[in-house]
Amino acid sequence: MPPSSKKRFNAFEDFPATDSNRKPLQSIADKPAMETAVERIERLKPSEMLPDRFQPRRLLPVHIRAPFFLGEIDCYQAASEWLSFAQQDSGVKEETEHLLNLGSSFDTHGQIKPITGSWVDDAKGNFVFLIETGERRFWAACLQYVTQKSESEPLLRVEVVANPTRQRQVIENRHAEAPSAVEQACEVSALILAELQILPDANLHDDYEFFRQARAQRMPAGLWDKITPIMQLTRPRMVQLLNILQFPSPLLELADRFRLPERVLREILGQPQSEWETLVRQSIQNSLTSDDIVEHIAAKDEKKSTSIEKSTRIGPTPERNALRSLRRFMRVFRKIDALQQSEILDSLADELVINKQAKETLQIMEEFISLLNARLKRR
Questions:
Q1: Which of 227, 318, 361, 376 has the most CB atoms at less than 10 Å from its CB?
Q2: What is the pTM of this model?
């Protein structure tokens, strides 16, 4: 049992963003010797440690998370259930295999990086080490222990830090492995909430509800500038990521587990909410890209339009076909950013010149532009 002189925190509180930890992080080499001397290395068993429930990168499947963080099962029971679930789910199996490979590397090369965190009181009043960074190493050791059916618990090297921060968590995550789109959305949200000093509520039933709070906040001046160096993303890109959190939690869980790209999720968000689940599941089953989603939607619209034409006994005409194609083009075009629009137009121009259709296309477009201008002037 750790000595009682260690500082206590609420196990489920966020790490508050102080003025000092809001600044860009320095490497250890950049810090004065006095600053680095306050850190302390210890050896702990996983049973003495607790992952941060509101860590932006979620590893445990949702049906195991709840009993684990409620203290109904320990880390090894959670690892055992996780391995069983992995046999039924390809997305989960891939994740556990990565972690088992990491765990086996401990036997070969040792634990290269320590787990960081601080001593806290958990919900039951027990003293545990709350993990700031290194949750993957924690679960890798647990999964390895269960797989090998070891008699004694592993000992993990941990570093006790004075001021754990969300910023350090996010930087560690992004260095360890490329995050999924959903994980990135949670990272942006976690950084915003940390800067605004909004702490998670331990009584929240749905963890994603904590991250969704960021979308309802008024962002003070300079907030985005503090987050940009950590995320290495532009403000519009981060806003697009936050929009992902509009999905219901079960769909976020699926999208995260199967690492659906942000562009795919963005296209799905643009459709009626009643179609979200179907499109998410189709994207997973058929490995659909964002272009595939657009084509799927366009084909559905075309089928609907054809059905209407048949019901009114008006067959498709060249005019209707041309209008349908133009609408499909505009639907795709206006949903992408300016840089992609320029790239597409540049590629189309090259293609038309190569196929010797450039002059004819230019004549048609010039006539079309003049007709559009004439009608706009009448308004």
A1: 227
A2: 0.69
pLDDT digits (tens, 9 = 90+) for 89-105: 888 998 999 999 998 88
Pairing of strands 49-50, 127-133: parallel
Task: Supply 358's token pair.
Answer: 């450039």
What is the reported pLDDT for 13?
42
DSSP state of 286: H
- Which residues are 270's β-sheet partners? none
* Residue in 226, 164, 271, 279 with CA at minimum distance from that of residue 22: 226
- Residue 370 makes CB contacts below 8 A (sequence gap 6+) with none
Find the radius of gyration of the CA atoms of the chain.
26
Strand-pair partners of 131? 117
What phi-psi label fits residue 141: left (phi over 0), alpha (psi between -120 and 50 degrees) or beta? alpha
Alpha helices in the chain (DSSP H): 19-22, 33-36, 62-69, 75-86, 90-109, 135-148, 166-176, 181-195, 207-212, 223-231, 235-243, 249-257, 262-269, 276-286, 290-311, 318-333, 338-354, 358-378
103-to-95, 146, 353 alpha-carbon distances in Å: 12, 11, 56
Contact 186, 58 (CB under 8 A): yes
76: exposed, middle or buried (Cβ count in 10 Å: 0-12, 13-18, 19+): middle
